[in-house]
Amino acid sequence: MIKRTLKQIENMITVQNDLSTFSSLEIEGVCIDSRRIEKGNLFIPFKGERMDGHEFVHQAIEDGASAALWEKSAGEPPANLPIIVVDNSLQALQDLARSYRQQLNAKVVGITGSNGKTTTKDIAASLLSLQYKVQKTEGNYNSHIGLPLTILGMEENTEVMVLEMGMSGKGEIAELTHIASPEVVVITNIGESHLQDLGSREGIAQAKLEIIEGLTESGLLVYFGEEPLLVERIRSLSIRAETFGKEKGNTIFPTSLEANQKGTFFSTNITKNQSFFLPILGEHNVLNTMAAMLVAKELDVHLEQAQQALDNVRLTGMRLETVKGAKGETIINDAYNASPTSTRAAIDLLASLKGYHQKVLVLGDMLELGTEEEAFHTEIGNYIPLEEIDYVMTYGPLAEKLAEAANMRGHGKVFSFQNKEELVQRMKETIQFGDVVLFKASRGMKLEEVVEKLM
Questions:
Q1: Is the Cβ–Cβ distance between 360 and 431 less than 8 Å?
Q2: How many angstroms separate the Cα of 124 from the Cα of each of 49, 83, 158, 159, 301?
Q3: Relative to the CA of 399, which of 4, 142, 159, 423 has its CA 20 to 30 Å away?
Q4: What residue numbers does the annotated binding site for ATP cover?
Q5: Cα(243)–Cα(252) distance, rounded to whole angstroms?
Q6: pLDDT tens digits, residue range 37-61?
Q7: Binding residues
Q8: Which N-terminal stretch is annotated as signal sequence (predicted)?
Q9: Domains assigned to the chain
C-alpha cells in the first residue's frame, strides 16, 4: 500500500495549507471509514447526506491515523494536527491514486462490460499469477471511490494490477481509466444494465468504450467480437485490438465444449487444442476465460500452464456459488446482479444441467432497465424452456410479469411471490434431495436471504 511522507504527498496532490511542520511524517495506506482506521493511515473524510466525515477527523487521528485530509469548504480545520487541506476530498483521493499508479512499475489491466467483468477479472488475475505478483479489485471496489482505494492499496512490488471498472452513467469509465492508465483493457459484452441511465444499448456501448481513453500508447483492447455495437465502432479506430467469441473469425474461439455438473471442458484455437477444465458453471464463462487468456497472452504468460490457474480461481461472492441445502439439494447462488443477458445465460445453464431430480429456477426483479423494464421481464418469461425446468418461482413486482408470461404457456408450475417468507415456505415444501435450485436477481432484491433460510 502507499507509503509516503506528507512532503511527498504535497507533490502528488494540490494542497492548500502549509505542511512544513509535519513534512517528514509518513502515512501508510488510506481509509475513508473512521471506524476502520489502522495505524499510520491517511484518513479521507467525505461529506454524506447523513454524516460529515470531517466530524471524525480528530478521533481518527487519536485512533492511529497519521494524518487526514480536510475539505476547504468544511471550515477551519483542527489546530496543531497533521491536516492536509484540499479543495475536494474525492478529487484529492483520485489524484493521489493517479500519481501513485504512475510512480509504480506495475502493469494495469482494466476490465469493464455489462456482464461477466467480475468473473473475467478473477480468472485473469489467476492466470497472470502464474508468472507475476498480482493484485486485483476486491469485492465491488470498482467505482470512482473504490478504484482509487484499490490502487492505493497496491503493494509497491506488485507487477500486475487487475482492475474492474463499473459505471452507472456516461463519463464514469473515462474517469476511472484516466486514473488507472491501463496497458490492456477488456470489454466483456454489451447488455441491458443501466438502460435507465443510458437510454439504449448504443449508449451503453459508447460508455463502455470510454475505457480506451486511458489506454497507454500501443496498449491492447480485448473485446467480444460478436457484438455488432462494438465491432462497428472499433473498426473505425486506430487501436490494437483482439477478439474472443464462439465463431472462428475471432482471435480466440473454442474448438470444443463439453459441460458437466461441475464445469466445462474446452479447448481453443490458440492453445493447440489442449483441453482445459473450467470449474465454474456455465458455458458463457468459457467466453470470460478466453478473454482472460488473451490478456495473459499479451503479458507473455505461457497458456500451457493455464489449467493450474483455472483450478485456483477464486470467484467474488454470489457469482455461481454452489452450496448444499438442508435437504441435500444443490443450490447455485448467482444473485449478485441480473440483466436480461445474464439471466438468459443463467437459465441456459440450469436447463443444460443433467443428473438432478428436479430443476427449480428462482428469479427476482432485474433492476435499472428503464422504461422497458416490464417488457424485458415478459421476454424472460417467454424465454424459459419450461420443458427443461420443473418449477419457476419469482420474487418481486417486476418478476411477477415474468411469471405471468411463463404461466400463459400452460406449464402449471410457475409461482410468484411478493413475500420472502412465503417463497421460502413454498420452496421447502417443493424441494427434495437430489434437486438443483438456481437463484438469479439484481442485488437489490437480496435473494441471499432466501438462500440462507434453505441452508
A1: yes
A2: 37, 39, 15, 14, 11
A3: 142
A4: 113-119
A5: 7
A6: 999 999 999 988 888 999 999 999 9
A7: 113-119
A8: none
A9: 3-90 (3.40.1390.10), 104-311 (3.40.1190.10), 321-453 (3.90.190.20)
